[in-house]
Amino acid sequence: MALRLGFDIDGVLADFRAAFEAIARGGASIDTSPDPEDDEATEPLASREVRRVWSTVQRTSNWWTCLAAYEPAQIARLYSLSRGLRWEVVFMTRRPESSGDPVQFQTQWWLESHGFYLPAVVTVPGSRGDLANALRLDMVVDDQLHNCVDVVSGSPAKAILLLRDSGARALRDHAMSRGIGVVSTLREALDVLERAQHVLTERRGRLNRLIDWFQSGPDDSLPLKPRSPRPEPQE
Ligand SMILES: [Mg+2]
Questions:
Q1: How far is the CA of 98 from the centre of ligand 1 (A)?
Q2: 75, 115 in Cβ contact below 8 A?
Q3: How far is the CA of 230 from the centre of ligand 1 (A)?
Q4: What is the pLDDT of residue 26?
Q5: Of 3.40.50.1000, 1.10.8.140, 3.40.50.2300, 3.30.565.10, which CATH number belongs to 4-13+69-209?
Q6: If you measure from the C-alpha of residue 223 to the centroid of ligand 1, how many angstroms do you get, rounded to a whole number?
């Protein structure tokens, strides 16, 4: 059995917060590298300021393609794992539109530029639990506790909370008391998912080995990078 996985994007893969705060601080360009010396970066924004920043986001052409990735190598790793372990991966986002291309295409473009080819992106507002249910997901990775709670209470899927703030101990304890796994990096989340896949496979160990007897022969997988030319079919 191969896993069906859902990944939230902002806060999990893309550093939305840094890009948003860069606009709030009046940066003309989107420099998303966080500056630990900058106290203003941690101050909460007033609601009027938040509206102004969203308005800038909406007017900026293809703004969603300009965000930095937290762990770029892990996005490429997720793609390799999904090909190697036959995972079906869905990326989920509630991003609002910005000018330029549709937000779905901007997000696909961004994912491909970080090494995840042919990504399935759904831009659905509303309950993550309903979405996990409809897509028959096994696990969802999200940086928001309320989304994780929504997933575990509204679907049979498990949830992993990606909590990059190591000081948020109360939030971590609360999540774990609800049966939600907690990790602090995308790398850690992928390690957990990889282990989960191996456990699932080992449970069917005997059957798998028997099946392997009948599966010898040439590897008929498509190329790892689908944008490369497809090899000629063998006679
Ligand atoms: Mg998020």
A1: 17
A2: yes
A3: 36
A4: 80
A5: 3.40.50.1000
A6: 31
